[in-house]
Design a protein that fits this description.
This protein is α+β, with helices and mostly antiparallel strands. It has three helices and nine strands. Strands 6-3-8-1-9 form a five-stranded antiparallel beta sheet, with helices on one face. The protein has a four-stranded antiparallel beta sheet with strand order 2-7-4-5, with no helix packed on it. Strand 4 and strand 5 form a beta hairpin. The longest helix is centred in the C-terminal third of the chain and has 25 residues. The protein is globular, with a radius of gyration of 18 Å. It starts with a helix and ends with a helix. 22% of the residues are buried.
C-alpha cells in the first residue's frame, strides 16, 4: 500500500543506496492490537508458516502507546532496545529478517490523546482509551489463498471490503452516538 511504500522510500533515502530493501512489494499486513498494556509479545522470530519465506524487509508501524522493542541475534545475546513511539516505523530485512525480537514495557500514558479519544468506547482498550496497534507489512506471496485459515487479510479486493466495512461500522457508531446526544 501507499503507506508501506512511503516508509520504504524514506528508508532508501536515509540509506543512500538505490534500493537497499530489495524490490519486493508487500503482499499482506498483520495487525496486532494490544488492549491490555501490561502484556507485550515475548521473544520470537518471524519464521513461522504465516511469516513468509522471503528475506524481503518487514515494515512495522507503531501507533498508540510507546513500547520498548527489543532485538537480538541469538538467545544468549544481550538485547538492543529501541523505544517506539506512536508513528515510528522500523524496517528489517535480508539476514536481519529473522532476528529475534520482543515487544516489552508498553508505557501507559503515552498514547496520543486524539488516538485514545477516537478508540475509547469503540474498541477494547485500556483505561482512558489507550492501546497499542502494530501494523506489519510483509512479502509472502506463498500464503495467498490461505486467508480463511487465519486472521490475515491479503491486499486487494478482500482487504478493501474489510477496511470499508470497518469504516462503515465506525461511521454508523459515530452517527448513533451523535443522535443520542441530541
Amino acid at each position: 500500500g501507499p503507506l508501506c511504500e512511503g516508509l520504504r522510500r524514506a528508508a532508501r533515502a536515509a540509506d543512500g543506496r538505490a534500493d537497499p530493501l530489495g524490490g519486493a512489494a508487500a503482499t499482506h499486513v498483520l495487525l496486532l492490537w494490544y488492549a491490555r498494556l501490561e502484556r507485550g509479545l515475548g521473544w520470537h522470530r518471524d519464521d513461522g508458516r504465516w511469516d513468509g519465506a522471503s528475506l524481503a524487509p518487514v515494515v512495522s508501524l507503531s501507533l498508540g502507546c510507546s513500547c520498548d522493542f527489543s532485538l537480538k541475534a541469538n538467545p544468549a545475546d544481550a538485547p538492543v532496545v529501541a523505544r517506539l513511539d506512536s508513528g515510528d516505523a522500523i524496517l528489517f530485512g535480508g539476514p536481519a529478517r529473522s532476528v529475534m525480537h520482543a515487544v516489552a514495557n508498553i508505557t501507559p500514558g503515552t498514547c496520543p490523546p486524539a488516538l485514545a479519544a477516537a478508540a475509547s468506547g469503540r474498541v477494547e482498550t485500556a483505561r482512558g482509551g489507550e492501546f497499542r496497534l502494530n501494523l506489519t507489512w510483509r512479502h509472502a506471496p506463498e500464503i495467498a489463498g490461505l486467508e480463511a485459515e487465519e486472521r490475515f487479510h491479503i491486499f486487494g479486493g478482500g482487504t478493501r471490503q474489510f477496511l470499508d466495512a470497518a469504516r462503515d461500522r465506525g461511521l454508523a457508531a459515530a452517527r448513533a452516538e451523535a443522535n443520542e446526544r441530541r
